[in-house]
């Protein structure tokens, strides 16, 4: 596999997405599996390991590559959970402000 020039690496780094999610308006977009696979260099590891006939067919445990994938997905899951908690806090604050404004409005207009 030929090496990329420094300029090509620079351009690809500048045009690369800065997160592991597909662009979307969803609060919890799908993981960008291709990006994560590229970050973890899964194709390179697969080719190297296939040449060495690894992992063994009778292997029962997870290898270091599989564990790194699991670790990455779990990290993204924790990040999404943190985002959810932050969003819930903001929604709670907005609801509290809305209730306070309604109470003030009701207090200003006697029945």
What report would you give on this structure?
The structure is a single chain. This protein is an all-alpha fold and 111 residues long. Helices cover 65% and strands 0% of the residues. It has one domain. It has helices at residues 6-15, 33-39, 42-51, 64-108.
User: Could you tell me how far the N terminus lies from the C terminus, measured between alpha carbons in angstroms?
Assistant: 80 Å
Which regions contain 5 or more consecutive residues with pLDDT less than 50?
none
How many runs of DSSP E, i.e. beta strands? 0
Looking at how many chains there are and whether they match, the oligomeric state comes to single chain
Largest sheet: none
Report the sheet-strand fraction.
under 5%
Helix content: 55-70%
Structure at a glance:
The chain has 111 residues and is an all-alpha fold. It has helices at 6-15, 33-39, 42-51, 64-108. It has one domain (6-108).
Keywords:
single chain, 111 residues, mainly alpha, 4 helices, 65% helix, elongated
Q: How are the elements arranged and paired?
A:
Layout: H1 6-15, H2 33-39, H3 42-51, H4 64-108
């Amino acid at each position: 596999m030929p090496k990329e020039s420094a300029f090509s690496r620079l351009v690809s780094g500048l045009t690369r997405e800065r997160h592991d999610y597909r662009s979307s308006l969803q609060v919890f977009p799908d993981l960008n599996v291709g990006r994560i696979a590229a970050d973890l260099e899964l194709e390179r590891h697969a080719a190297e390991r296939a040449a060495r006939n690894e992992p063994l067919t009778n292997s029962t445990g997870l290898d270091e590559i599989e564990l790194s994938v699991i670790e990455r997905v779990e990290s993204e899951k924790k990040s999404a959970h943190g985002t959810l908690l932050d969003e819930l806090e903001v929604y709670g604050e907005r609801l509290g402000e809305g209730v306070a404004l309604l109470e003030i409005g009701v207090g200003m207009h006697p029945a």
